[in-house]
Design a protein that fits this description.
A five-stranded mixed beta barrel has the order 1-2-3-6-5. A four-stranded mixed sheet has the order 11-9-10-12. The chain has a two-stranded antiparallel ribbon with strand order 4-8. The chain has helices spanning 2-16, 62-73, 102-108, 124-136, 150-155, 159-165, 197-202, and strands at 20-31, 34-38, 44-49, 52-53, 77-85, 91-97, 100-101, 113-114, 168-171, 176-178, 192-194, 206-207. With 213 residues, the chain is an alpha+beta fold. It contains seven helices and twelve strands. The model is unreliable at 157-164 (pLDDT under 50). The structure holds zinc ion. The site of zinc ion has 6 residues, from loops. Zinc ion (ZN) binds at residues 178, 182, 184, 208, 210-211.
Length: 213
């Protein structure tokens, strides 16, 4: 009896899980991080790329990020690994083309930020490193020293404020974040980049006791 209940529960969990993969043709690009995929059954799926955030249309590099995504996948067959649904009913997932992850490619080329608030998978720390490398090499949007994160842009954070708060680095191991003035700012595990203290706190990180960011 107990075993039967467990099996039913497992089956239920399996069916309820939004984690599934499918293929389709990319027929629309709304943004660097949002595309439309048409599957064989003629259904259109709006896909929001998991764990990253591209600059908004009104932002520097918003258009370039969209162009990059378009050049990569528009009119081509992509694989979608659905992870979640967002509050707009869009599928949130990983998009890849011929085995290459578009999510990662956008980070690597400096056309996206790791969406720290929503990127919760173990590989997100690795993505933080990709972002760090793009930033160090001044790729894409990182050509500007005070690039405003899209989530701050949407909230209407001014550039002036951004320059003062600056980037903060989070230690993915200790979950402590540091100000640029801190001697631990570029520690080996400090691969998470936050644009503000609020962002770091919302992600569950604690301020460093030494630099008090
Ligand atoms: Zn510190």
């Amino acid at each position: 009896m107990k075993l039967k209940i467990t099996i039913q529960l497992l089956l239920l969990l399996l069916l309820a899980s939004p984690c599934f993969a499918f293929q389709g043709k990319c027929v629309g690009i709304a943004d660097g991080d949002t595309i439309t995929v048409l599957t064989e059954d003629k259904t259109q799926h709006k896909i929001r790329l998991y764990g990253i955030d591209c600059p908004e249309k009104g932002q520097d590099f918003g258009h370039k990020a969209k162009q990059f995504t378009s050049d990569k996948v528009f009119g081509k067959t992509v694989e979608v690994e659905a992870i979640d649904k967002d509050r707009y009913g869009r599928t949130v997932g990983m998009v890849s083309i011929r085995g290459q992850s578009l999510n990662e490619e956008l980070l690597r080329t400096g056309y996206a930020w790791v969406y720290t608030r929503y990127c919760k998978k173990p590989f997100c720390a690795q993505w933080g490193l990709l972002q760090q490398q793009a930033r160090a090499n001044k790729k894409g949007l990182w050509a500007h020293p005070n690039s405003v994160a899209p989530w701050d842009f949407r909230r209407g954070t001014s550039r002036g404020q951004q320059a003062v708060t600056g980037p903060l680095h989070g230690n993915t191991n200790s979950m402590v974040f540091h100000a640029p003035s801190c001697k631990y700012f570029n520690c080996s595990n400090c691969t998470m980049v936050f644009s503000s203290k609020d962002e770091a706190l919302a992600t569950g990180y604690r301020p460093c006791g030494l630099c008090k960011p």
